[in-house]
Write the structure tokens for this entry.
Amino acid sequence: MSTILLAAPNLFRLDLNYNTLLLLLTHEKVCSLLRQRITALTINHMQSSTRYAQENIARIALIFLHLRHLYVDMRSLDSTIDVMVLYYFDEFLKQKSPLISLCADGRPSEEMKINAEKWLICCRNHMDGKQFAAYFNEKAGRLLIWM
């Protein structure tokens, strides 16, 4: 992967399987290149096991400091996407990331499905009064948050 990153200096978007991404994040040289360049990230096939999810998400947020667009495919999760979305949201917020959009596919809670903005404000009170938009597209099975 570092060869691809070195050969393609204009690379800014990365689409990877969740497990592949975690393997890449064990290589410091690759992490350094990812940190500098990637502004759009798609994570496919997030595992249904969430045993180390919070730690992995924290690591992802630490590496991708310049990320502006994040999409995560959570359709494999056994539960609703609510907790995982909040993990990603919180970690990127903690890193003061310039994130503009956070999108996630998967099964939502009823609260998220009915009113995603209200759901986010209820889960994260600090969002009340802040400018953002959140919408769950039921037909696509996709949560969209714009900040």
In short: The longest helix spans residues 82-94.
